[in-house]
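chain below, 345 aa
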Amino acid sequence: MTDTIIARIDGAIGRITLARPDALNALTTPMCEAMTRALLDWRDDADVLAVVVDGAGDRAFCAGGDVVMLHDSGKAKDGRAEAFWRTEYALNELIQTYPKPYVALIDGIVMGGGVGLSVHGDHRVAGDTTLFAMPETGIGYFPDVGGTYFLPRLRADIGNWLGLTGARLGPAECFEIGVATAYVPTDKHAALIKALADIQDGAEVAGLIQSFAATPPGDADVPTEVQLFDRDSVADILAALDDEGSDWSAKQAKLIRRKSPLALATTLEALRRGATMEFRDAMMMELDLSLNFLTTQDFYEGIRAQLIDKDRNPGWSHEDVEAVTDEQVERMFRQVAEPRQEFHT
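prediction:
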């Protein structure tokens, strides 16, 4: 346990609370290490029948990772960024392969690293304030933490839409699309945790969650125009959105044109490749991509403009997506992570 992770056994469940509410429970390397240790201990503990993960405070499950640290580490070439990604991605793989029911209560903001802590588990329980997004192209990066595996399996057009635009989903959209497996009103989460702690068998978890589940409030506002995102290139997607001409399509095109052209082109190709990969292979691809993004102008400009200077005026390396060449995208997939068979340092 660290001062930012609270890991304990509560009856039949291992319970992890991300405890950095002032930082929207954003992940650090020690937090990932602490979660990994707890999950490994409980994996072999016969008295622990399931795992429940939630976030402290009322604003976020987890808003991502410490991207300013990644920016500073990349500039300094001190290895902290690679150590973080290796540790985080190993945790993502552990969650994806975990043999016991894994329940993430994804109330509040769920972005970046928070997506990796939730979507690869068995049960993702949305609450009243769930706000899901993968906004990485806006900081000159790509949807990692297994996003290249998870997003295209929602559906090609849905995955491309979420990955390229950073679109934000509420609880109804999350449930409709499949990001969330259930919606339970926030004021019922404490009772759900208590009930889970009293289970006698892990097989009870799914039915127990459903006994608390309700219909999400609001409409699942995913228009049919999202099908326009099932195209072979970002330029083709933009052309289809421009031609369609609705207010929704115009808004999506505007969002895309604000993002890093290099990140957009790389993201679309990563989602295409990830759609047919095994999980571990997708994660190894992502580690290569992450390390290659550390060598780009856009990664530093995006984080500077959004989170450091906050002028919202990044100087991208390309004027638009048409200026990004196939060769430049292919270079982002160079195998640079060593040793290739391991995430951990």
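The radius of gyration is 20 Å. The chain has a mean pLDDT of 95.
thats it, cya
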